[in-house]
What we know:
The chain has helices at residues 26-40, 56-69, 86-96, 106-122, 139-148, 168-173, 179-182, 196-209, 219-229, 233-249, 257-267, 280-297, 300-309, 311-325; strands spanning 45-50, 74-79, 126-131, 160-165, 185-191. The chain is α/β, with parallel strands linked by helices.
Amino acid sequence: MYESFYGLRESPFNLTPDPQFFYLGENHREALAQLIYGVREKKGFIVLTGEVGTGKTTIIRCFLETLMNGSNNTKAVFLFNPKLSVNDFIQYILRDLDLTIQGISKGEYLNTLYEYLINAYQKEEKVVLIVDEAQGLDPLLLEEIRLLSNLETSKSKLLQIVLVGQPELSQTLSRPNFRQIRQRINLQSHLPPLTEKEAGEYIQKRLKIAGRKDPLFMKGAVKEIYRKTDGVPRLINVLCDNSLLIGFASDKKLIDKKIVQEAAKDLKMGQKYPTTWKWLIPAIAIVGATLSFAILQGKSGFLTGLLQRLQPLKEIIENGLQHIFR
Length: 326
C-alpha cells in the first residue's frame, strides 16, 4: 500500500523469514558459523536457542540455503512441527529424504533410515535433521531423537541433529532425565535481541534491499523503535510496518518519533503495568490470611471494621485484575 509512496519496490518489513533480508548481527554471525561448522565437521548434536522473534528460524533458513548452495553435498530434513508421535516422526524423516516407507514397525523404519545413512556416508554425503520449536518436544520424542544420534560408524556420526527452540529448551535439557542428550551436545549458542546500533542497521538494510536509498526513519524514531521493541527483530518489523502505514496515511515523507509512538500505542507495545501491580499478589495474600484468622476467631466486629479499612486496597486489587484479564 505504501511502497510507491516511499520509493520502495516491495514491503521491507514482512514477517516471513526471507533470506534476502537476513541481517547478521554479531551474535547471529556466531550462531550461523557454529551451525555450518558443526555440520561440516559432523559434530552430532547442535542446539540453538533464543527468545520469540529473535531470528532463529531466519538463521535456519539462511543456514539451509548456505548448505544447499555450497559444495557440502548435504541433505537436510527440516521439521517445523514437532508435535508428532514417534512413528509419524520417523516416517516424516523418511519421506523428506525421498525414501519409500516399507513395513509397519518402527524397527523397519529405522532399518530403512540406517541403510540410507550408511550409503550417504560411503558417498561422503552429510545428512542433517533440524527440529524447529524443539521446546515443545514430547519427552518420548526427545528420547527418540537421542537414539537417532546413536546411528554412527566407528569414525563418524551418520546424522547431524540441530535442535532449535526458545530458552525453555535449555531448561528441559538441563533436567537429570535428559543428561544423556546434554552430554551429546557439542555446540550450543543463544540469540539475544539486537543492540540499539544493530537495530538501526537492521532497519536500514531492509529498507535498502526493498529499494530505498536514503534514510526513511529519523534518528529519534529509530531510538524509539528500539525502546519499544527491546531489539527483537520480529517486533521491529511489526512496529516499522505500522509506522510506515501511519506515515503514508498522514502524508509524511519521513518517519519521526511521534509517528512511531502512535504506532506503538495502537499496537500496545512497550506498555507497563502500573506500579501498584507489583503489590497485588502480596496484598491478596495478606488480606486472605487476615480474613481467615478473623473468621476462625469469630470476631465479626473486627471483621466489619477491617473490611472498611481495606476498601482502598480492594480497589487496587480490582484494578490489577483488570490489567490481567483485559
